[in-house]
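Subgroup meeting minutes
Present: P.N., E.W., G.H.
Scribe: E.W.

1. P.N. recapped why we're keeping a running log of single-chain structure predictions: easier to compare across weeks, and new members can see raw inputs and outputs side by side.
2. G.H. added today's entry (449 aa).
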Amino acid sequence: MALRHRFRLTLLAGALSALAAGAFADSFTTTGADFSKNLRGNRAEVVHAGGTAWVTGRAMTEGQMLRFRRGETLLADEPLVVGADGSFSFAFDLPADAAVGQHPITVTAQNPDGAGVMMLKVSPRVALQGQDGFDIAQTALAKGIYQVAAGRDDKLFVAASSGRGDEFTSVLMRLDGKTLTPDAEITPPRDDEGVQIGVYGLAVDNSNGTVWATNTRQDTVTIYRQDDLSVVKTFPIGTVAHPRDVIIDEAAGRAYVNAALTPVVHVFDTATTEEIGTLSLPATNPREPFASMDLKLANGRIYSTSRATNEVAWVDVASGTGTAFRLDGLLSASGVAVDPASNRLFVVGQDSDNLMVVNGDDGTVLADTPIGAGALNVQFDPQAKRVYAISRGAATLTVLDTDGQITANLPAGKLGNHLILDGAGGVYAVSMSSAEEDARGSYFHVTPR
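Output recorded in log:
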């Protein structure tokens, strides 16, 4: 009896194999290589409900047939055919009630076959408001402004880097803080391989009359004199891997520089200009290292955000101990600010377009406020109890109270990138730009009336 059952099962398996071969033989055709990585979404800077969204691709095969779905819904009745140059562009209208957030768009291809999923971001609409409560002064400066820092004697320092390859340019500028006009400017030299050195992150050390700048492309840091922008010291290439931010603790005589998208923070003595150690930002999961972005210093702690793991963390500069909190609902965590008195943290997410108010003691989210596309950087004014957040896609500067309520939403230029407090209740902010109609980056001074 057992042999008979085994024989019947063998026959059944053979029948299924034959059926499968006949039914699916035409479907398993050649597969296209690297299909997913050649897809691009959100060609427009910002996509809102009721607007138009885009999916584009390159390096495809001429004649390849593509279909686009959101869930089970086809976004077009007919397949799109890839052109002779191997590229395609597909536009579709979003419904007026499309939810804010990330939407998976599935792209399937035939001849050769392929499939990929793209995340389409629908951003919130936050109207401009409260403009009558602020004065905004704007000055066009160099293209690709990255950061701004305030020095002594009402001087401001601006770092700008733009372009690629042989067209890459970089400049360090000093501005008169009262007139908003440049009074000194230098172009960093080329490195030993002939590549233009770029300046990105900035911090001032007024005790020693210097400006620290991160040279992200060269994996190092340069110190300049505030008085004439001459070089005090350039650290050897490789001192800090892909440095992003630098912050100065003048009272302790320390400079802190993070290796971007890693947990490592390098520590320097500002008097001797020597590296004296490193700190490590903790993570909630040891198998997912902290990927640092912004740096802030408060209460003897360095605070940072992790772009890859959507966390906020702090590390004590004396003991090296710290903690991290994962923030559900925050995507591409980019900037953090701290209220030293209450230990409230204000954290923004570039891909979730929001600002979260977080209890810095236990990670509890106290408020979650949509503020605009590409929320990138944030500052807290402890005197005015006011939060400022800049959003590069929305081109706005949002003002909030400590409970996360919006009190004003101001125009701040395309590709807003960085802001600092001015010490009098307002902020200095800078925006980058790559758009032809706004080819020069801008500097803003925003002051409450």
